[in-house]
Specification:
elongated, mainly alpha, single chain, 3 helices
Length: 71
């Protein structure tokens, strides 16, 4: 069960990183503002930063627990 959650979180983190909009890439930035996929670029960037941070801490916690169970 814990391994399944770990795999899901790692895949979610990969998707979150792909959703991040680079500041210097005007093409992706204009696409995000036109499509309103994640709202305004500033709020989307803030939301993705928070989500990435939480995901990393959860992933590290699960990895630590799995290491203790298997060690």
């Amino acid at each position: 069960m814990l391994k399944l959650i770990g795999v899901f979180i790692s895949l979610a983190l990969i998707l979150i990183i792909f959703f991040r909009i680079p500041d210097e890439n005007v093409g992706l930035s204009s696409f995000a503002t036109k499509s309103s996929l994640l709202g305004s670029p500033r709020s989307a960037q803030r939301f993705l930063n928070i989500l990435t941070g939480v995901g990393i801490f959860v992933y590290l916690g699960i990895a630590f627990q799995l290491n203790l169970l298997n060690g």
